[in-house]
Amino acid sequence: METKQMVRYVAIGAVALIVFVIFFNSWTDVEPGEQGFVFKPFNTPSITEKDAFVEGTYFILPWNEMITYEVVNKSKQYVQKVMDVNGTDVTVEVSVNYNIIPAKVANLHIKHRENYTIFIDDKSKGAIKDVIGRYTYEQVYSTKREALEGEIEAILERDFEGNFLNLNYVEIADVNLPDNIAAQIEEKETQKQRNLTAKEKQKEQEYLANARIEKARGDSSLIVSAIFKAEAIRLEAEQISKNPQYIELKKWEKWDGVGSPYGNSNVFGDKAISILKSN
């Protein structure tokens, strides 16, 4: 009797332990930056596309599985050797920034499984090769990077559409050319800078020359003015020396009508008579 009770207690304990383990293992987490869906192998369909689980802890039946994908922004770098429009080899480093569209992780899984990155790689490499091949190496190296990035983005946006991926941006991080071509471009750019510097110096010299001319003109006008003043003084001195009455004329020209233009020494007071007091 005691043996039967012992067996029953052991069985109950074993069942309780199994239930506890199952219950404990039925809790699953969706980490920050992830979204998930539940794979139900005994259901039809086994994946429900509309169900999306955001960050948190969830209880699922032990025979089901929570599958998660990161939906945060990610970047993939591609270092690729391609030919420009003239057949010259150009090595470019391109970054493609993307993310899985939130709430579409189940759709992505159904279409691509975990190998969706292979789809991204194939489409990105094809777009890079296609766009770089439309331009010369010089345009790729220096003048058309933004245009190239825009064209690659346009191609990838079309490719990602319907594949539950969102393209954020494309960036050409680096461009490498054969050494001889890179040196030629560098020399050309250096010469452009030299030409610009020479033009600026020429403008500066022209400005300084014009400034000197204006200063010289200003100085010469002062000299001419001084010459005229000196000539006027000389002529006035000649008038005085030749005609003493010239002084009297100047006094009358400057008289303000008060008193005598000859001063208070005039015996006639304010009368305009040129007879002076004797001392």
UniProtKB/TrEMBL annotation:
<protein>
    <submittedName>
        <fullName>Prohibitin family protein</fullName>
    </submittedName>
</protein>
<dbReference type="InterPro" id="IPR000163">
    <property type="entry name" value="Prohibitin"/>
</dbReference>
<feature type="domain" description="Band 7">
    <location>
        <begin position="30"/>
        <end position="205"/>
    </location>
</feature>
<dbReference type="InterPro" id="IPR036013">
    <property type="entry name" value="Band_7/SPFH_dom_sf"/>
</dbReference>
<keyword id="KW-0472">Membrane</keyword>
<feature type="transmembrane region" description="Helical">
    <location>
        <begin position="7"/>
        <end position="27"/>
    </location>
</feature>
<dbReference type="InterPro" id="IPR001107">
    <property type="entry name" value="Band_7"/>
</dbReference>
<dbReference type="Pfam" id="PF01145">
    <property type="entry name" value="Band_7"/>
</dbReference>
<keyword id="KW-1133">Transmembrane helix</keyword>
<dbReference type="GO" id="GO:0016020">
    <property type="term" value="C:membrane"/>
</dbReference>
<keyword id="KW-0812">Transmembrane</keyword>
